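$ run holo --ligand "zinc ion" --emit tokens
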Amino acid sequence: MIIKNGKIITWETPNQILEGYAIKISDGIISEIIPENEINPSEGEEIIDARSQYIMPGNICAHTHFYGAFSRGMGVVGKPPSGFPEILSQLWWRLDRAIYKNDITLSSEVCLIDAIRHGTTTLIDHHASPEFIEGSLDVIAETVINAGVRASLCYEVTDRCGQNGMMQGIEENVRFMNYLKQHPNNRLAALFGLHAGLTLSNETLAMCKEKAPADSGFHVHVAEHSIDEYESLQKYGMRVVDRLDKFGILNNKSILAHAVHIDAYEMELIKMRGSWVSHQPRSNMNNAVGVADVDSMLRLEIPVCLGNDGFSNSMWDEWKSAYLVHKLWHRDPRKMPADEIATMAIYNNGRLASQMFNNKLGIIEPGAEADLIFVEYKPYTDVTIGNLPWHIVFGFRESMITSTMVAGKFLMKDRELLTLDEDKIMAEAKTASKSVWQRYSNLEE
Ligand SMILES: [Zn+2]
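-- output --
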């Protein structure tokens, strides 16, 4: 396949915007980027006319929760939660218990439709469904394969569902990781999921480390709210990151989500271990937990990535929120310039995904996976390498994404979804979500 007549944003280092070049794709990989006047299509090669749209690598999401999809529009039981611990107990730790097998399929599918429509081609999910643990990652994996995107999956181990639930969570991670080793798929990856320090005893952490395959990365929420730090200090006499490190959870594959309340020493520890941090500003604002000190972490060269925590799967919305919230939080308009967001969302997310999927992702260059989006952006001011991140914050809209491709295959072309039946899935999700809401409100505390 040859894609011509596009403006190619390569997101190399340094970045380039190429005009008059064509992208040649074979076997799902970008094989060449050639001047358009040198195109000499061989027989059977398909030529795609990008009609002057921008072509860029698909967006990557470093932390999300497909299972949370049915929370949209749902009333939370009880008094309005006054803080994050109540949001957990009243909303998430009830909702996940109301989700059964079919709901896992549908909540994943609606998220993947959202992702494909809005140009997110690789997602790192963190799953919980205490009433259906064993096999839950297979259910999600099947939707990922059918949808055509890439995803890394894990099951969140926690002590809040008893010894049995905890053990099942461990087994599900180990089972799925071993399965992928025996049946590798270039669109699936796995991490070992952990909820957060505050719901994991020392015994559980030790068992997770012991049972996890030797080269596992862990995916865990860290100091999202200050309670995680204070409980850790009170119960174990050490801060969250110190404690996770003591149990061998930090390594160069592990993702620590949020890290809002970590201190300088914890940052140093994360840097030393080479772990990734994912930043989710929309979620942090929504839960009113504070704003992570991304500035300092990036200055320490901690690879901070951008996730969405189950908010919409349009990553540019996350860009915009990051851009705004750090300015307001610090009362300083110099904070979080758009190129710093590109460092997280493009370069760090790209490196994280490339490491996970064992190939180059998030970049357009020969040898990289052909995960591309077409963006119908018609700028009325110059777009340059220097100001592109600000164009993304102020000008780019997800509605401008017309086509999404993963591994050289269109999942959406000219706004038409090609792998998923949107109307059918939405109708089924509507029915299923009603039952989930019913079960959610009938549950005991
Ligand atoms: Zn999360």
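-- notes --
The chain has a mean pLDDT of 96.
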